[in-house]
Amino acid sequence: MTYISNVISLFFFFFRVHLQLAMLTFNNTTSSSSSFFLTAFPGLELAHVWISIPVCGLYTIALLGNSIILFAIIIERNLHKPMYYFLSMLSVVDLGLTITTLPTVLGVLWFHAREISIKACQIQMFFVHSFSFLESSVLVAMAFDRYIAICSPLKYATFLTDTMSFVIGLIICIRQMVFMFPSIMAVNSVSFQGGQELSHPFCFHPDMIKFTYTNPWISSFWGMFLQLYLNGTDLLFILFSYILILRTVLSIVAPQKQQKALSTCVCHICAVTIFYVPMITLSLAHRLSSSTPRVICSILANMYLLLPPVLNPIIYSLKTKVIRRTIYQLLQFKGSRNYSIRSLRERWDRRKQFSST
């Protein structure tokens, strides 16, 4: 529990420092008096109230699901292992991504609050991409964990200790700061045209750079390079890890052991798929095709935002027996506690009625 608390504290300290740096940097922007206009679903403005119902449901699932996963890992000692440490990091990142976009998405759908200042838009854009790059890094750490567990099982307990897991989390944070701080400076040096309409209910870099006074191709290629370098190298490392894992699994003679080894990777493969596919598709739709319908971009944006935070806790809860059993015990404990409280209240009421008579 102490290790997980340290990891969570490290992540929140990292984001607090990043927020302070972002605020200090963006306070100097010359375009702070201008605004952008957010868009949820173009052409469906009259149905925003009805669309908000499933969107709120998905946000609720994301918040509750990741919080339950995080809480279960903290209180259950059997889950204090590197695999679940990295899963707790993934839940923290998914919570951060959900909370970052929740105010503007619901603001547009519920209150038609479309206007956002360029300064606030820059800060939200920074955190959206920070959490996105962090999730990519955590998925790499989870792939490394699966590689060690399957390809070198005898070294797993001695190599991936609590200290090593903490060091990996620290490296992820340092890597994020090294690459994101120059991006803050680069975005701060760009002047944006106010009064423009964005394609999403949140601020996304490929969407914003179309409305700069300078040549947008410079910022576009810098953003594309950063995404290809960080997410691209992460994805290549994940694919290379699974090539080695697959080679090791195929060398196992017993089919049952092959199936057991591959079953431990199913959740991670699903998490990688639901994260990278919407993100790459949305980025390419913005950068490579100016004629992409806005509705398509809107659907891809919501998939990019909601699929990983919503599906990750569901997948790991359904496919991981230990997590499923822990969540069931938590719910059972809560139900029995509520029942005992109700029974005590009923006894107290009966005693009061008896004493009054």
TrEMBL record:
**What are the UniProt keywords, alphabetically?**
Cell membrane, G-protein coupled receptor, Membrane, Olfaction, Receptor, Sensory transduction, Transducer, Transmembrane, Transmembrane helix
Q: Where in the cell is it found?
A: Cell membrane; Membrane
Task: State the GO CC annotations.
Answer: plasma membrane
Q: Name one Pfam family in it.
A: 7tm_4
| Domain of life of the organism encoding this protein | Eukaryota
Q: Name one GO biological process term.
A: cellular response to lipid
Query: G-protein coupled receptors family 1 profile domain: which residues?
Result: 65-316
Under the heading InterPro entries, the entry gives:
GPCR_Rhodpsn (IPR000276), GPCR_Rhodpsn_7TM (IPR017452), Olfact_rcpt (IPR000725), OR51/52/56-like (IPR050402)
Q: How does it sit in the membrane?
A: Multi-pass membrane protein
Q: Does the keyword Transmembrane apply?
A: yes
Asked whether the keyword Nucleotide-binding is assigned, the reply is: no
Where mainly located?
Answer: membrane
Q: Which family does it belong to?
A: Belongs to the G-protein coupled receptor 1 family.
Q: What is this protein called?
A: Olfactory receptor
> Could you tell me the gene encoding this protein?
Olfr574
